[in-house]
Design goal:
globular; 0% strand
Length: 145
């Protein structure tokens, strides 16, 4: 059931991207691309540490969440960028996404290595879609590739 919800959310985001990619005016942002890369690196690092006690990494989690919050605010200020903003907002608010994972880690104290691997792969897939989306803007709409 949880896997189905994740897949549903993932495909809704993907379909949204495909529909919006037909529209003109999508502008690549080097600063967004750089921020996305930094967040992916930070998230990978934290996901790999989530089998350790949460309290040992709470400051890192808060720092990453603050970084993502800044990115969402920056994306909201960019014109014609609703899809990217929606994807980052999903990372923050959707169930079974990154913020939800951090809340689970906080509640449980540690996450089993098996769960870290499974959940981590899903989280990284979502973050990589955001990264790919921004990078594809360099060359124009997705359907032209």
């Amino acid at each position: 059931m949880k896997k189905n919800r994740f897949l549903h959310s993932f495909f809704v985001l993907l379909i949204t991207l495909l529909i919006i990619s037909c529209g003109a005016g999508l502008h690549y942002s080097k600063s967004s691309d750089t921020a996305n890369s930094q967040i992916i690196t930070e998230a990978q690092t934290l996901l790999s540490k989530s089998s350790e006690p949460y309290n040992s990494h709470a400051a890192e989690v808060d720092s990453l969440k603050a970084h993502i919050d800044r990115v969402v605010a920056d994306e909201a200020r960019r014109g014609k960028n609703d899809a990217t903003k929606a994807m980052w907002t999903a990372v923050q608010k959707d169930k079974q996404n990154l913020y939800d994972f951090f809340n689970l880690w906080k509640q449980q104290g540690t996450i089993s290595q098996a769960a870290v691997t499974e959940i981590g792969n899903k989280m990284m897939a979502v973050l990589n879609v955001i990264q790919t989306w921004e990078q594809r803007k360099k060359d124009g709409p997705l359907f032209n590739h």
